[in-house]
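Blinded run. Sample ID left blank on purpose so nobody reads anything into the name before looking at the predicted structure. Input follows.
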Amino acid sequence: MKNHNLYRLFQSRFPENMDQAFLMQENGENLSYKQLHHQSGQMAAFLKSKNIAKGDRILVQVEKSPLNVVFYLACLRVGAIYLPLNIEYTEKEVRYFIEDAQPSLIVMEYDNSLNYNDLKEIIHILDEGRQASVADLSGDLEPLVEVAHMGKDELAAILYTSGTTGRSKGAMLSHDNLASNALTLHKIWAWQPGDILLHALPIFHVHGLFVALHTALLNGSSVWFLNRFDVDALIRLIPKSTILMGVPTFYTRLLDRADFTRELCASIRLFISGSAPLLTETFENFFKRTGHYILERYGMTEGGMVTSNPYDGSRIAGTVGFALPDVDVRICNAAGEILPDGEIGILEYRGPNLFKGYWGLPEKTAEDMRPDGFFISGDLAREDKNDRISIVGRAKDLIISGGYNVYPKEVESALDQLPGIRESAVIGIPHPDFGEAVLAVVVLKNQMSLTEDKILHDLKDNMARFKQPKKIFFVENLPRNTMGKVQKNILRKNYESFFN
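Blinded prediction complete.
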């Protein structure tokens, strides 16, 4: 019977020369494929010594580092379920995840200010140069040769959703979910021998871990590995790379730099953006500056990548391209009925990338699944006659004002096209007459001065009255999570009492 362990797939794609660097750092501390295999084998042996068995959950909250990647692969090798957390989560938040996931082992950064004494039997420090750290304890062990035999539907990871509207849910992802998605992306993005990935994303998230690193591993590529986003480092390393995957913030920050030029990008063949919407203005300005059209794609925790603009073919601003070759997509109303082309509805999809459900929440899983296997994404979208998808917003963000539906993305797009506006976020807040009122939060470009009256005057000929903001607030920055998504729940909380 075939072993579907994801590590086996990676191992089959390792370069012939195992001394080739996998993770490269500017200080010269590179990790070769040989070291990756050896050290992950040692850490797998450490996990075995702690009686970690196939299916055990391991909760990890550590800084991004090469050692973090090695430990992830060690978890795959023993068949443990990897559960990464954002390093910024507080102790209170982490305790929720611990209580929910019931991990057999917890790996953290050393911090004596945290009060985890009740969990000290299962907590280990990844690397603190101490005898008790995972790195030190595993360094004296013989690498585990065996790779756990995994069925295609057995779990490789649990990733918690961001929880911006309530309880975070653990999305269960199998070895086959991750393998199928990585293989598809590797193919449609035309990875080539010699490709070098520039990696500045976090690795507790689908984008940085499962999309970026998985496709690089499948290609046997070297990766410039930045511990955090640093625009200066991007400028230094872009000429030494061929692929950059980022969030829109990467590209706006690069465009702010005078030394970011077409000549600097001569070696790059592909810029990819995701995790948050890319403004049309950014897309167009990037092409003018570099000659590159950014490839925007769409995905979510529950399914990895779902759609992508093409590698060969037109990439159109404001769209996320077509369904992946092995993914079925449809646009439906709340009853699950397929809508005609061009109408806005909820995007639903199914495919080998689709998760196995929410950890410990079978009722929620059933609620979000159609009987024919389609997952209800909660994202509002439209599909044109050529099957190209555009994401309009989240269904939960839909504003119903005076009985009329207002899609925030439509209003945001109109605002963002006005001279002087850098970006905007549109929300609905309670209103005594309309039920909900449209409210806009706007960030102006440097040195620009705009008034609410001026903006509303410029909007009045572009959209119906009921869609126009009842109030506009000006801020220096929009609140974002670590992946660059605007946190509209924070905005709603900040302004919810304005009209009452």
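Unblinding after everyone has recorded impressions. The longest strand covers residues 421-431.
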